[in-house]
Amino acid sequence: MLNIQRNIQNNNPGNPGRNPIIEFNNLLAIINRNVIFPNQIQNPARFVTLLNNNNRRSRRCYKGFDLCCVVVGEEARNHNVTNQIVVRRVANALWRNSNVIDKRRYCILARLINNELQRL
Predict the structure, then answer these.
(1) Cβ–Cβ contacts within 10 Å for residue 32, how many?
(2) Comparing 51 with 12, which gets the higher pLDDT?
(3) In this prediction, what percent of the chain has a pLDDT beyond 90?
(4) Can you say whether the dihedral through the CA atoms of 15, 17, 19, 23 is positive or negative?
(5) φ and ψ at 23, to 5 degrees?
(6) 77-119 pLDDT tens trace
(7) Concatenated DSSP letters of 19-37
(8) Exposed end of the chain (fewer CB within 10 Å): N or C?
């Protein structure tokens, strides 16, 4: 945890008035894990629309962790956290602490989304 805090503190390009370590700890404490890791696969079409709006250029195929970051980012915006470094660190902490089944769901969803994006 100390290493994560040190990395966040060194990389604060966002709002200099907010302490990123406090934002990280607060977001990690209040984020709804049931939204991040639901019991069933979410709608791939919703993700395709969201990803197309955010990214106009071509990129590598999406991985499960990338989609987890998207969901954590949406949840973070609901809590007024916009620092992408903090969001990515929270997503990383949640991903490392999730179980294999939750990770597998995101990987399956990523495969569905990549197939959908190839058709467009």
Answers:
(1) 10
(2) 51
(3) 28
(4) negative
(5) -60, -45
(6) 988 988 999 999 999 999 999 999 999 999 998 898 888 777 7
(7) -HHHHHHHHHHH--HHHHS
(8) C
Four-residue CA torsion sign, 56, 57, 58, 60: negative
Using an 8 Å Cβ cutoff, are 68 and 87 in contact?
A: no
Burial class (CB in 10 A: 0-12, 13-18, 19+), 55: exposed
Q: pLDDT tens, 21-33?
A: 888 888 989 998 8
Compute the CA torsion angle 42, 45, 48, 49 (nearest 10 deg).
-110
Which long-range contacts (C-beta less than 8 Å, at least 24 apart) are formed by 67-73? 67/106, 67/109, 67/110, 67/113, 68/36, 68/94, 68/95, 68/106, 71/35, 71/36, 71/42, 72/31, 72/36
How far apart (Å, rounded) are the C-alpha atoms in residues 85 and 108? 26
pLDDT of residue 50: 66
pTM recorded for the entire structure: 0.74
Residue 74 neighbours by CB under 8 Å, 6+ apart: none
Q: Give the domain ranges of the chain.
A: 2-119
